[in-house]
Structures are given as structure tokens and as C-alpha cells.
Design goal:
mainly alpha
Length: 379
């Protein structure tokens, strides 16, 4: 997993900054195939075939991961050839066969990561051309053969390597790296203390701290899961300790962390896909999303405040509230990284480069913080 993750990250950096490391600079479609192979192989190693499977990697997952690398690597290696000779419409037999294998592997990866419902949706729409001529009324369409469908999905530019995959390769990877660096360098701890110093003493303070800290962390990570894993272990026990029922504490954290995908500057992956579909800069999506996201979190604050008033829940004791100015004095460099990211996104419009530069700033910050200084084990 570490090797695959490192390889994928290096490839993304090489492509984004046009570094040509070791003379390697693949075409756009080849780059996408290589990433698909790397991350699909990682999915087979990280996600077991069944929920009840053992924690360790099953023996059959290794050959499946290798097959993903081989099939995607073959298509990536022939990236220029498939463009010059129109493989989407007529391809060599081995290319069609390997494309079919890769498509099956992708669908199994979808099932493992997204579940059966997502797989059924993908199968229904993906195989629709096979039976389109049998559908009634406006659902009728031209029928295609299975090889034609395979080539359209895998070699064409509107399915497997369509806009969603392009957005992931060009933008999302960088922001995922930034979110991980923020957590690893102590940014999550700073924003948690900052939220506690602002909201901790108020009525129902722990729940408000959960909302504010999750909103801030979500606005920088864009990931619901990483947001919950960063703030939840602290906020949920604190809420329970001050009188919130366990189910309510979990619900507050879940809602607040989910809303992080709506809050700029770093929103969920769908926001980047939306910008690509609409053909507008990501900065415009950020600006349009700010007010609705702000209203979402204000509504959460009001809700937990009303709940606390009805239940007579108090805030945290003074001894557990960090000093605001001391918190800012210690963590202001994280705010610098945040403002730098916003400036590069809104003013310079460098969506692809901004998260990497902000990550470098975070890594520089960590060098001056003994408790959060990175080493090989943390990386």
C-alpha cells in the first residue's frame, strides 16, 4: 500500500508540474490509465471482498491487483497508439480483451468500495446499449455489441477516463494530500483548540465546538471520513461527558463533518467535477457555495443551542478552555497556510498547484514544532 500510494503521488506531482522525472512524461490518457491501475490495485489490497473476510489480504487479491496493474499498464503504454489509430472504434483483439478484464476489475472495485447499490447502478447504465433496441418509447436506442461497449467504456474518453477521473487525477489528489498533511502536522489539534476557546464556555459548548471544529477541518480536508476521525474521538466523548446522549453526540459530529464537503475552500470531489462539467473556474464554485455552507453551520449551531437550552446543558469548565491568544500565538502558521491556499484558489486561480504549495508550507511549519515534526514513520 505504501509503495502504491507513493508511486501514485509521485506520478501526480510529475504530471502536474511537468517535471519529467527520469524522462517520464506520459500523455494525458496514459497518465489516467496508470493511476487507475495503481489505485485499483490498492483498492484490492485495502478492501476485502466480503465484510466478514480476514483483516489480512486474501490470496486471490494479489493476482487481481497484479491484473489491474497489467491491464491498465498495457493501455497506458499504448496511449498514443490508441489515439492515432482510433482504438475506441476498432482495436486489436488483445486490447479489447484486456479492456474487458480491466472493466470487470473496476466494477468489482466499485462493489468493494461503494457497495452493491452503486454496482447495480453502474451495471444498469453501463450495459444499457446491449438491450437499448428492446426498450419502449423514448428509452429505445441503437444496440451495440459487447466489444463495442467495452471499447467505448475503457478506451473512450467519456466513461472510465472521463471527467470524474480527470478531475481526480488533476485536482483531487493534491487536496487529499493537503488534508492529510494538515492532520499530520498538528493542524487538526490547533483548529480543535481554537474552536474550544471560542465556543467551549457557551451553553452546550462541546456540541458547538464539534460543529465549529468539524466545519473548519472539513473546509480544509474535503473528506468526511478524515474529518470524523480527526475531530470525533475528541468531541464525541466530551459531549457525552457534559450530558449529551451518545446517539445525539454522534449525530452532531456526523452532520458537522459531512457539511465540511460543502464549505470552501476545499470542498468535496463533486465540487471539482461540477466545475469541470460547467466549464467554470473552481473559484466560482467556492464563492457560490460559501453562503449556503455558512447557513448550514449556523443552523447546526442554533439546533444544538436550542437542544442544550431545553436540556439545561452547560459549557465546559473554565479549566478546560484554552486561552484564545495563546492558541493563536502557537498556531498562527496554520492560518497562514489557509490564507495562502485561499489566495491561490481565488486570486491566482491555480487550482492544480495550490494544494501542493500549501502542503509544502505545512511541512515547513512542522519542522519548527517538536511535537509534530514529521519523520519516516509518520509519513
Amino acid at each position: 500500500m505504501i509503495l502504491l500510494g507513493t508511486l501514485g503521488l509521485l506520478m501526480a506531482i510529475n504530471q502536474t508540474f511537468n517535471l519529467k522525472l527520469l524522462g517520464f512524461q506520459p500523455l494525458g490518457n496514459a497518465y489516467l490509465y496508470y493511476l487507475i491501475g495503481i489505485f485499483l490495485a490498492a483498492a484490492y489490497i485495502a478492501f476485502p471482498a466480503w465484510k466478514g473476510a480476514a483483516a489480512k489480504v486474501s490470496w486471490y487479491d494479489w493476482p487481481l491487483a497484479v491484473m489491474a496493474l497489467v491491464c491498465a499498464g498495457y493501455l497506458g503504454y499504448h496511449g498514443l497508439t490508441m489515439i492515432n489509430y482510433g482504438w475506441e472504434f476498432e482495436a486489436p483483439t488483445e486490447a479489447t480483451v484486456l479492456s474487458g478484464i480491466l472493466l470487470v476489475l473496476i466494477l468489482e472495485g466499485v462493489r468493494r468500495c461503494g457497495g452493491w447499490p452503486l454496482l447495480f447502478v453502474a451495471l444498469f447504465f453501463g450495459t444499457y446499449p446491449l438491450y437499448a433496441d428492446s426498450m419502449p418509447g423514448f428509452l429505445w436506442g441503437n444496440q451495440y455489441t459487447l466489444p463495442e461497449i467495452i471499447r467505448a467504456h475503457v478506451i473512450g474518453v467519456e466513461s472510465v477516463i472521463g471527467i470524474p477521473m480527470q478531475v481526480v487525477a488533476q485536482l483531487v489528489i493534491g487536496f487529499v494530500v493537503f488534508g492529510a498533511a494538515l492532520t499530520a502536522t498538528g493542524g487538526g489539534e490547533f483548529f480543535m483548540q481554537f474552536a474550544t476557546s471560542l465556543m467551549g464556555k457557551s451553553r452546550g459548548g462541546p456540541a458547538k465546538v464539534s460543529v465549529l471544529s468539524s466545519g473548519i477541518m472539513g473546509s480544509l480536508s474535503g473528506s468526511v471520513i478524515s474529518n470524523i476521525l480527526t475531530t470525533g474521538p475528541i468531541t464525541i466523548p466530551t459531549m457525552k461527558k457534559t450530558g449529551y446522549p451518545a446517539h445525539y453526540a454522534g449525530a452532531v459530529e456526523a452532520c458537522a463533518s459531512t457539511g465540511g464537503t460543502l464549505m470552501p475552500p476545499v470542498m468535496g470531489a463533486v465540487a471539482f467535477i461540477m466545475a469541470s462539467f460547467l466549464g467554470v473556474p473552481y473559484a466560482e464554485i467556492m464563492i457560490a457555495a460559501f453562503l449556503p455552507a455558512l447557513l448550514f453551520y449556523l443552523a447546526l449551531i442554533f439546533q444544538v443551542d436550542i437542544y442544550a437550552a431545553r436540556r439545561g446543558l452547560k459549557g465546559l469548565p473554565e479549566s478546560e478552555i484554552p486561552n484564545l491568544w495563546e492558541t493563536l500565538k502557537d498556531g498562527w502558521p496554520y492560518l497562514l497556510a489557509l490564507f495562502m491556499l485561499i489566495y491561490m484558489l481565488l486570486v491566482m486561480r491555480l487550482e492544480a498547484y495550490a494544494p501542493y504549495y500549501a502542503t509544502v508550507v505545512l511541512l515547513g511549519i512542522s519542522m519548527f514544532k517538536r511535537n509534530h515534526r514529521l519523520n519516516l514513520r509518520k509519513v
